[in-house]
Amino acid sequence: MPEGPVPQARSVAFRGGGFAPRPVGIVGPIVFVTLLLLWELGSRTGWISALILPAPSAALGALEDLYRSGLLFKHLGASLERLVLGWCLGTLAGIGVGISAGLFSLARAGVVPLVSAIFPIPKIALLPLFIIWFGIGEASKVATIFFGVFFPTVIAVTGGIDNVDRGLVRMGQSFGLRWSSVVRKIILPGALPAILSGFRITASIAIILLVAAEMIGAEFGVGAYILMAGNLMATDQLIAGVAILSALGLGVGWLIGRAERFLLRWRG
Known about the structure:
- This protein is mainly α.
- The chain has a single domain (57-267), classed as MetI-like (MetI-like fold), CATH 1.10.3720.
- The chain is built from ten helices and no strands.
- It has helices at 27-45, 56-69, 71-103, 105-118, 127-134, 138-162, 166-174, 179-216, 222-231, 235-263.
- Helix 8 (179-216) runs parallel beside helix 9 (222-231).
- It is flat.
């Protein structure tokens, strides 16, 4: 039989991509700068009342005055000390309790009902009780942040352990790994993404509780500065304080992002 023409090879588009975020770093700054420019333009043209919402340049001037007076580092240093101490203590305690609840049935039976009962309570509502227990000083503020961070961390750690692929656990057991090796090499690395995601949530909660605690009773701190500005109707200073909190949140998010890239580099 006569041979027909050989069909030409045709390339097929790769269909395995998608569902993975790509870094597009330029979009965020463009959106942010555009909003600031529109805000500034609206303030300068009178579309936005300076009494209600001052221009970004006015807030920048208030921030510069705060820096020159030396109070910026006093307020920021006091807030950072409370934030770091309360978040670290709450996170360490939450990780320990969460791992115990995720690995041991007896601990889970005791911890989960307690967490379910206390977690919905707004932690700032407990601040007056903490003031009675620990006084008006630093301990009550740190305790508020601690309790606000502890319970979400327990939930994130326990949920992360529960969501580890059981097939991987059984595979490790079939290869004769000891219980401690299964936990160290399979369960904890598998739960780490959920735990780090929980860190982002608890860091935001910690900043919210920090500001609320400082507004109730503190001489120095970003929350105390914002409260003072609000009482004086100094909206430029108030916006400057909010900008400090925004920068603080961005810094914390950046640090957690770096930790994620370092600790989760095994995912490729």
